[in-house]
Amino acid sequence: MQDCEVKRQEDPLPVIEGSQPPINHKKLSLIMIGLIVAVSMTNIDSTIVSLSSQAVQSGLGLTASGIQWIVNAYMLAAAATFPICGHLSDLAGYKRIMLSGTFLFGMGSLCCGLVPANSLSLMLMIFSRALQGIGSAMMFPAAIGILFSYSAENKRAGNMALFFAITGAMTCLGPILGSWLIQYSWRDIFFINLPLALAAIAMIVTMIPKDSPTTEHGSQHIDWAGGLAVGLAMIALIVPIQQGSTVGWSDWRIIASFGASLVLFLVFGFWDSHVDNPIIKLRIFRNPPFDISQLAMLVAAVIFQPIMYFLSVYGLLALNRSTLITSLFILYFFLGFLVSALLGAQLFNRHGMKPVLLIAGLIAATGFSLMSLTAGSLDKGLPSNTVWLSLSMVVAGAGIGFMFSPSSTDAVNRAINASYGEVTAINQTFKNFGGALGMAMLGPLCTHYFALDIHKALGKYGVSASRAQAIADTIGSGTSAGAQSQFASMPRSMRNMIMPLIRASYASGSSKVFLAMGCLSLLFIPLALLYPPKRQANFRW
After folding, report:
1. Could you tell me the CA-to-CA distances from 408 to 99, 102, 264, 297, 494 in Å, in that order?
2. Whole-angstrom Cα distance, residue 216 to residue 17?
3. What long-range pairs does 265-268 form, CB within 8 A, spacing at least 24?
4. Is the pTM for the entire model greater than 0.85?
5. Are strands 538-540 and 5-7 parallel, antiparallel or unpaired?
6. Cβ(444)–Cβ(242) below 8 Å
7. 397 Cβ contact list (under 8 Å, min separation 6)
8. What is the C-alpha to C-alpha distance for residues 497 and 5, in angstroms, rounded to an integer?
9. Binning pLDDT at 50, 70 and 90, where does residue 14 land?
């Protein structure tokens, strides 16, 4: 790869505070490897947990709603703490916070693996997953700060694109590891993080030079009040979205939680505008390209984070496939993601964000629409050959991968007078909040249609709507074998007749989720049209 030749146009890239002197290419490559190992550990964990949701559910005796909370607790904790962790990395030094976050993530993994199977299982698992989320929130802004600090200015865009592409693509190792580890124990999917965390800590200690805080003298404190307000506001918004369909949208607790979220966001906005060093500088959002990149990341995360969970349950329950075969579906998605991420980064370097968003929207909408059509055809007799389903997953993954790293890179490039930790924290807050929002919206959507179809199919056998809802909630994250246990008291001939109806019902529910993802993907197109004409540096490779 030749050196990047930077050609400035109407306005230069904003310079972000806290740069360290660039180091030689060989040492920077070793540093990047250490950062990739650490951050990839968090990405791999997310796919392993999604793929192994049925084993965790049965091992701890949880419902589908409970397992969705376990998936969501990680993303919500990360989103709520990213703003504070971004400032911590600037205040304490990137290397120190990187080490602390890696250690905390490892401890959270250990706690997850040790959770006992009793009445406290769900609470303890949610707490342990939250520890993992906080550790991830500490690691990511610190990693970006380290990478940007030691990269030459004309190498930053390329290094960022490579970092985001590799760490995102490493997520595909989750299905492979998960299908292997689950044969022994679901606890091993968390214990596997311990050697990875130790390896990452060793590489960070030995390869990354000692750094110093990057904040100026007047900002040597953290706005804890602002961080608490925005964190609680996000939690108060996510909880009623996920629980509304269960307890009823008119329930006073749901209405009160929405109201509390609105008040907290308003309080945060007022506080932010009246303190000297707020947790999030709202003036950053005065830059329209930055705002559009953040909205694009939010939309992508609403789709990207939950897709692994739904693909896993679809393969295990609807298709009645093994964990290994189901892991291949997730692998197909990330195959498209990886190839497209590299292509999207190259297009972004040459032509900016506008064409990236436009192409990503068209590809993703096509892929998810095909997934919806194919996945929902199970009631018509889905053939054993799922080539078309697999191809549609590759296309859908390509659409999301095409814009994932460019939107993060563009956000960092566009931030005005902000440190690496701060702007990365904002970007990752949008990402994790979007993931939590996606699980909160799409999980109940799938369960709702699953229950409707169960009642429609089994109503003639005396299964009421409330019973259908209970069945959907119980087996909504399980395998076909787990679903059969719900009808163990029935004669075998009756079970053999009912199970195809159950599988077809879940296929119908998941097809609605994939269709919703396709509709959300179309939002990239108006965002592309709103994106201003290119006003950033051109990179010629």
Report:
1. 23, 22, 27, 7, 53
2. 9
3. 265/230, 265/233, 267/229, 268/226, 268/229, 268/230, 268/233
4. no
5. antiparallel
6. yes
7. 332, 333, 334, 335, 336, 337, 340, 367
8. 66
9. very low
Q: What are phi and psi of 400, to 5 degrees?
A: -70, -45
Backbone angles phi and psi of 154, in degrees to 5:
-80, 0
The CA distance from 514 to 389, in Å, is 12
Q: Which of 286, 263, 283, 287 is nearest to 275 (CA)?
A: 283
| pLDDT at res. 381 | 55
Q: Which residues of 217-233 are buried (b: 16+ CB within 10 A; e: fewer)?
A: eebeebbeebbebbbbb
For 55-104, write each residue's pLDDT tens digit. 787 788 887 678 878 877 888 888 888 888 877 887 888 888 999 999 99
Show the 3-state SS of 121-151: HHHHHHHHHHHHHHHHHHHHHHHHHHHHHCC
What is the C-alpha to C-alpha distance for residues 230 and 130, in angstroms, rounded to an integer?
17
pLDDT, tens digit (0-9, with 9 covering 90-100), for 142-191: 888 888 777 776 676 667 767 876 776 676 676 677 777 777 888 988 99
